[in-house]
Specification:
It contains 14 helices and 16 strands. It has 514 residues and is α/β, with parallel strands linked by helices. It has three domains: 295 residues, FAD/NAD(P)-binding domain (3-Layer(bba) Sandwich); 109 residues, Succinate dehydrogenase/fumarate reductase flavoprotein, catalytic domain (Flavocytochrome C3, Chain A, domain 1, Alpha-Beta Complex), CATH 3.90.700.10; 74 residues, Fumarate reductase/succinate dehydrogenase flavoprotein-like, C-terminal domain (Methane Monooxygenase Hydroxylase, Chain G, domain 1, Up-down Bundle), CATH 1.20.58. Strands 1, 2, 5, 6, 7, 8 and 15 form a seven-stranded mixed beta sheet that branches. It is globular and about 70 Å long.
């Protein structure tokens, strides 16, 4: 088995993972970046709306908006720390070093927009493809770093710990410590070990474990499952955010909240605007409120969807401000300059995850988590629009700076890992696809927008049985990317269901009708 040695191993290539890799490699540390597909295939690249940025930040006002959207469950220390750091990072990296193509006025000033539950305009953007613009600009710089080794089309299988994977028997008596990961080459099916002083999970959220989702097809809650398997603490797992407006044709293409921020209004099949009946902020209410309102309205009218009316905007404005959304809908047979967009909710963002402190540290020594897979309480029970990219940047920067300091100061014990062993027989892909389908349907139907004890109990029984079956199935076959995704999806889905069943109090994205 091939062994690759590094100072830092980063698993995941979204904004959090890529920025961490950029900062540490530029500081002279040897860094390995693992991505399950090409490095630009990530949730960050799908972000449309924008990123919060204020030259002269009013942190008190921003905290108020974040806390309101988060159902009062946000960790105020985490919010203030990440926002203060994040604004510096946006300016230093995204605006100055990476020269991201943000929309500007004729005078060259950054344009600002407003999204749901924001009390003022404070979001910078790049048309309706902000995430893609940031990722593209950052990764151009990333590829030129000499100290960085990029491993595309590779998946981390399991994290290496002293107690389980060291060839030295006596390491079982040492504190629970991570020292890298086993990594699968998705194309050759070869497995190598990457050892590192610091291992950083930046794997995104829970992605494809729901039937309808806006997430990247490469994400199945992998980092959360891997961390949990070695004893990492996970929190707020019941808080799964559904985006209110996803194009009803296909149910995966996001219709940015910025469309409503520019004045679009939700209407039912009878052409009636309805959000005033559900919240004082109407169409700019927090996402959890809007998602449930759409579901209630859809059921009340017996319709498959509701509609987003853009008639307050001119056709030219729509094409210029939302070119990607315009083209996506047009390809689906809807000209949004002439007719409303049919929309439904879909799983979008995960507010829970691997518990960390403000510098990305988990309860496992030398294992960090950043971005959407991590949770320090920033988002509480529901995420405020356009905070995710800011929080990802801040968590990457704070963690990278802390790691650089530790690696330069401390000595690290890195043993030789045990060889990877697995059977040679390939798993039946049809069985994998069927099990994935069961997980997706179970999560959507029983652990979705509106929950109850009976639905959650049914989900728990289905998923617990499936998890046990998959554990046995996994051990009997050669590891493949699909098998790995199935194993991680089953574990993460079960953790979410357990948390949702245990928490009987509705708050934010977790809504119990009982």
């Amino acid at each position: 088995m091939k062994i690759i040695n590094a100072d830092c191993l980063v698993i995941g290539s979204g904004i959090a993972g890529s920025l961490y890799a950029y900062i540490t490699a530029k500081a002279g540390l040897k860094c390995v970046l693992v991505s399950s597909a090409d490095i630009d295939v990530c949730n960050s690249a799908l972000a449309q709306g924008g990123i919060i940025y204020e030259k002269h930040p009013d942190l008190k006002n921003l905290l108020k908006d974040i806390q309101l959207a988060g159902g009062g469950k946000c960790n105020e220390k985490a919010v203030l720390s990440a926002c203060a750091e994040g604004f510096k990072d946006v300016e230093k990296y995204f605006i100055k070093e990476f020269n991201t193509d943000f929309n500007r006025s004729e005078e060259g000033e950054l344009l600002l927009t407003k999204e749901a539950a924001h009390s003022k305009k404070r979001i910078i953007f790049s048309k309706d493809t902000t995430g893609e613009a940031i990722i593209s600009a950052m990764q151009k710089k990333l590829k030129n770093l000499k100290n960085l080794k990029i491993m595309p089309h590779c998946n981390a299988i399991d994290l290496l710990t002293l107690s389980h994977n060291s060839t030295d028997y006596y390491d079982i008596y040492k504190p629970l410590t991570c020292f890298g990961a086993y990594v699968l080459n998705n194309k050759t099916l070869e497995v190598c070990a990457v050892t590192a002083k610091k291992t950083v999970l930046a794997t995104g959220g829970i992605g494809q474990i729901y039937k309808y989702t806006t997430n990247s097809p490469a994400i199945y809650g992998d980092g959360i499952a891997m961390a949990y398997r070695i004893g990492a603490r996970v929190i707020n797992m019941e808080y799964t955010q559904f985006h209110p407006t996803v194009f009803a044709k296909g149910r995966s293409a996001l219709i940015s909240e910025a469309v409503r921020g520019e004045g679009a209004v939700l209407i039912n099949k009878n052409g009636k605007a309805f959000m005033a009946e559900y919240h004082p902020l109407k169409d700019l209410a927090p996402r959890d409120v809007v998602s449930r309102a759409i579901e209630h309205e859809r059921l009340k009218t017996g319709a498959d969807c509701v509609y987003l009316d853009l008639s307050c905007m001119t056709g030219d404005f729509i094409k210029k401000r939302f070119p990607h959304i315009y083209k996506t809908c047009l390809d689906g047979g809807v000209d949004i300059t002439k007719e409303p967009i049919p929309v439904v909710p879909a799983m979008h963002y995960f507010c829970g995850g691997i518990f960390t402190d403000l510098n990305g540290r988990t309860n496992i020594l030398n294992l960090n988590a950043i971005g959407e897979c991590a949770c320090n309480g920033f988002h509480g029970a529901n995420r405020l629009a356009s905070t995710s990219l800011l929080e990802a940047a801040a968590s990457a920067s704070l963690t990278a700076k802390a790691d650089i300091k530790e690696i330069r100061k401390n000595k690290f014990y890195i043993p030789k890992p045990k060889d990877w062993k697995s059977p040679e027989a390939l798993p039946d892909k049809n069985l994998i696809l069927q099990d994935i389908s069961v997980i997706k349907s179970t999560m959507w139907n029983y652990v979705g927008l509106i929950r109850s004890a009976s639905r959650l109990s049914r989900a728990e029984k289905i998923l617990r049985h499936l998890h046990n079956e998959i554990s046995v199935f996994y051990k009997g076959y050669k590891i493949t990317e699909d098998l790995l995704k199935l194993r991680n999806a089953a574990q993460t889905a079960l953790l979410i269901t357990y948390a949702a069943l245990k928490n009987k109090q509705s708050c934010g994205t977790h809504y119990r009708e009982d």
